[in-house]
Amino acid sequence: MKKIISRYYFIIAALLVIADQKFSGLVLSSDFALGLSDFTYYLSDMMLNFLVVLFALIVMIWSGKWQKINNRKFKRSYLFYSFLALLAFVAWNFVTFFLFPPTRNEISYQHAAPTFTGATAFLMYFFIL
Fold first, then answer.
1. Termini Cα distance of the chain
2. How many Cβ atoms sit within 10 Å of the Cβ of residue 86?
3. Average pLDDT estimate for 2-26
């Protein structure tokens, strides 16, 4: 099998993950983030993750190695497989919800759930469950 991705890209990916965690922790633990509502806090967290991914994508495209990494043609079956993976994820969440006892995070969420509204409740339910 042909080597598609060099070790260099694995090292860069690891550094990006570390930078993402440190940057998010630094920004979201500041005094500015303490005054945010729940929804704004989680939205800020998601936007910071999006910015890191966007930065990584721009660097890969500018490096000129994008064609070597992504040398496969897009097929419609990939969308089908992605949809199946999403369904499997949702099914796994339901199975674990009914078969296993609740975790501490889930119990904490249930106690705080009445204070969450709208998109915040959806985000918390989706990521905790």
1. 39
2. 10
3. 72
Compute how many other C-beta atoms are within 10 angstroms of the C-beta atom of residue 129: 15
State the residue for tokens 């501490």.
104
- Which amino acid, one-letter code, is at 61? I
Cβ atoms of 45 and 28 closer than 8 Å: yes
Q: Based on the number of CB atoms within 10 Å of its own CB, is 126 exposed (0-12), middle (13-18) or buried (19 or more)?
A: exposed
What digits encode the pLDDT tens for the residues 90-110?
888 778 777 877 767 666 666
Tell me the C-alpha distance between 91 and 87, whole Å. Answer: 6
Instruction: Give counts: helices (H), strands (E), the chain.
Output: 7, 0
Contacts of 59 (CB under 8 A, 6+ apart): 12
Residue 125's nearest CA partner among 112, 61, 24 is 112
Percentage helix, strand, coil for the chain under 3-state DSSP, each rounded to 5:
80, 0, 20
Q: Per the structure block, which two tokens stand in for 64?
A: 């000129």
